[in-house]
Design goal:
The complex is a heterodimer. Chain A is of the alpha+beta class. Chain A contains seven helices and ten strands. The longest helix of chain A has 9 residues. Chain A is globular. Chain B has two domains: 266 residues, no CATH class; 55 residues, no CATH class. The longest helix of chain B has 27 residues. Classes of the chains: A alpha+beta, B mainly alpha.
Chain lengths: 198, 349
Amino acid sequence: MRSKNLFIDPGRCIGCQACVAACRECDSHRGRSMIHLDYVDMGNSSAAMPTVCMHCSDPVAPCAQVCPVDAIPVGPDGVVGTASAELCIGCGNCVHACPFGVPKLDVAEMLQYKCDLCYDRSSQGLLPMCASVCPTDALFYGTYEELLEKRPSAEAVDVFEFGEQAIITGNAVVAPAGRNDAIPGGYSVWSEMDQDPT
Amino acid sequence: MPPRDPRFPPETGHDRRAIAAGSVAALVLTAAILAGSRSLDNFDVALLGYALGTIFLAFGVTYRTVIWAGSPAARRYLVRGWKALLAKPGKSVPVSEVPRTLISTLLLQRFIAQRSIPRWLAHQGLFWGVVTATMITFPLTFGWIHFRAVAGSESGYWIYVMGMRTAKIDALGIVGWLAFHGLNFSAVLVIGGGAWFLHRRWRERANNLTQLGRDLMPLIALMAISFTGLALTVSSVLMGGFGYRPMALVHMCTVVLTLIWIPFGKFFHTVQRPAMIGVHLHKQGTLGSDGALMCRSCGAPLEGAVFVSDLQETMGELGLNYAGWVNTCPSCKRIARGAQYREQVKAGF
């Protein structure tokens, strides 16, 4: 596995969209942003949620597993690539199987696009575009030790909970020190409602 | 050791089935060559390498297809797609939709034009070059078609198909000239398309993602076949046959190595994409008959109800235990996760 990862701290995100603009400049998908920036409580709060591909490692890349044509490559370093332009048939399986809501689908092009950790850059030791411009380090790229050097009171969690399913990821989310339980993935709200007969 | 691919459990004996299916395909093709060439009477021994390469291709493509079709998502979509394609016309999609899909997606590949027009033109060159070359060479190398000189004529030939004499052709006439130079036209198309893709690989700023084996070798192989094939014409037409024999050997090597490699590299998309041609008809048809499912959070249309239940079944087979999450749109998934982070992880951010 790779030593450097993205550490995402939604608590630091100011919703400035610099990451979205920078992502558009990435060589492998010029003009198209792969990062999602959602406002969690639009109108009431400026809280924003940046979402990049988390590069799921266990279970490995659900998006790739549900792909009917093996179009999504998973590298030996755990990076889950964007769909192969030759293979992708644009069925949308990956879009809906991704628990984090990451892949995008261009129906006319019959092609999926997703964050690939700016592999053309990160494989050469450069920062992913989003992390290179984030003014608050809400998107921090480096080793876990480098993260702790900057934020001694932070914890990095790479386990997410989607109902009964725990998913371990390559990238991690920053949590307060000592809080290393699985991060809720949002699904539990609905799974509890599913089980409630009322 | 890399983690086992959960799509292909080792205990299923799938690999043995794939080898058996591949062997059957190779035997069927061999039998067809024997029958079509009249027990090898019309088989050109100089083309033996090509024929053997194609027999291996039949094995490899079938083997790889069976392995591929074993994964839950591929199996489900192959069945669904072919049912939609072969359904009674007008039953689930308009009558015109099947030929429209075949022409638009398979032949004209308009989805590539949506990505970029130069890319589309280059791919059309590669596609039609390879298709025409295949249609010309396979019957020739199998001994299904051969030519015999017409007695008393300097340039007339009888065309024999499956051992039966059919039409007469004048090699120096327009039709004859076009037919005998068909492979040259194919080579020009392939070289034009391949050159554009190689140039793009060379100039692409993200070209450190290009892999020699995965991305460059298929292009280099097609270009090598085309250039060595054209060199044979140059040798015979312009150079009085100089260097023809060694070049013929080099050409055969490039073709045979490519044939052997097709099932295991990027070229396999030439099997996968046509095999999945019916998936969009299936999605369109079931969307019409069963309706769309709405995101249970925001109420926006999500996908067809059948698509969602198919995906949930696939996820269940793969042991992905959050299939209920599929009923929520990607945007609402992200916002729900953000809201829970805000409430439970870093309160009040």
